[in-house]
Amino acid sequence: MARSSYPPLIATWMDPVSDRNAINAAxxxxxxxxxxxxxxxFLDRDGALILxxxxxTELERRGAxxxxxxxxxRLLIENPDLIRQVHHDYYAxxxxxxxxxxxxxxxxxxxxxxxxATQAAALMTRxxxxxxxxxxxxxxxxxxxxxxxRPLVAASIGPYGAHLHxxxxxxxxxxxxxxxxxxxxxxxxxxxxxxxxxxLACETIPSRLEAEVLLELxxxxxxxxxWLSFSCxxxxxxxxxxxxxxxxxxxxxxxxxVAVGLNCTPPQYAEALVREAVEVADKPVLVYPNSGxxxxxxGNRWLPGEGVDDFVESARRWHAAGARLVGGCCRTGPxxxxxxxxxxxxx
Length: 347
Prior knowledge:
By secondary structure, the chain is α/β, with parallel strands linked by helices. It is built from 14 helices and 10 strands. Helix 11 (244-252) links the parallel strand 5 (226-230) and strand 6.
């Protein structure tokens, strides 16, 4: 799309000092997890870790206009309160993790909107701050702690294709080199890795090459932990056609990866993919599919697709097949997450 279609966003709201102070406080609260696996206690006690649902599509359901190359990252500037509220509502529905609104926030994408590198970094750290504030607000209610552990914040690292805003995160056909992928991801991972989240969510990864790059870059971040999840085109292959089992094995070999699996994949493929992952990985397997609708980049629309009749009952089957981190992605919401939490969490 031509840049003129989207007027530059004004970044005068950003206060780097207050944002940094808030992020430093969040980092201090999360420091005890730096050399540990942040998800282990949930799996040991509860038998599952409940992920949240779709963020951008839930924001749209609540009236936000995200027909924009920045997608949900647009609201980090225009309506951060709504992002914070959605995070809070997912925690209240039963989610153990909130995934930040940084999926589509990148230095090149934000530069095209007139933001400096400093402003872009502040925007990314703000995504973690909002999720952390939602967590603290939720956890401050004593009644909310019944049968729960203090939830987590995962900083979203979306794929290279997300900033292209052309749907290529569901294809992986970028036509760029390993060096270009490294340059794109390195600084953003450093910013989000130091922003106070409990772990990174490297998600919707459609190509093996990009997965290799992310695994290399996470080694540059002291003590960082992450999960790695792939977008898949069927029950055996990620979006670029590579064997899903091979990609799971690649991620499983990294000491920095705490879970591996799939997301934003049609749910009818999820059970077969989970079973493949369990055969290959000795790490926990995660699954958070979309609703089954198909995203069309032209017009930013979701088209009818083959879904499942009962998302929560399907989640039971994914868990029975061996998945231990379970949630939803695009076009799922707090209602689905509440059902999954009731179905899977031991109390």
